[in-house]
Amino acid sequence: MEDYDLGKVFKLIEPGPVVLVTTSSNGRPNIMTMSWHMAMEFVPPLIGCIISPEDYSFEALYATGECVIGIPTVEMMKKTVDIGNCSGKDVDKFEEFGLTPLPAGKVKAPLLAECFANIECRVVDRSMVDKYGLFVLEAVKAWTDPEHKERRTFHANGDGTFVVDGESVDLKDRMVKFPECL
Predict the structure, then answer these.
(1) Superfamily covering domain 17-181
(2) Residues 24, 60: contact at Cβ < 8 Å?
(3) How does pLDDT run across 98-135, given as a tens digit for each residue?
């Protein structure tokens, strides 16, 4: 073993997959790229996500308490990175990147037609937002596109490189402690 830079520890535990977060404030939808999120609970389904106050989407999420998490697949990797490299303050990202907003069922933020899955969310806990930028979201409706054949997602390594999902290994018969997850 050798020393590792503590400022780079995040690269060792990057969550997965890279997602797109849509918000809508004052009738204006926006999209941001996010890789810092985590599942927190099964029922109700809770998702923790970190969004910096410096991100344009922060203000909309904080004000409306609603968003959609779109899960892109490998065919959208470059576009997803490009979305993260500009601000919705300056660019209409739906128009700029040729993305299709669809009406959500329970929130005002739009679904992303190009994503294979979308999760409508409402903020249920803001207690760690000021200190950490951590919003706790409750998933209130989820969608998948059965026509979307590609299902491989991609994960950030934290240094501009990504890992693409690959081989699946079925160990369901060993999942005895949490059978409700199967």
Answers:
(1) Electron Transport, Fmn-binding Protein; Chain A (2.30.110.10)
(2) yes
(3) 999 999 999 999 999 999 999 999 999 999 999 999 99
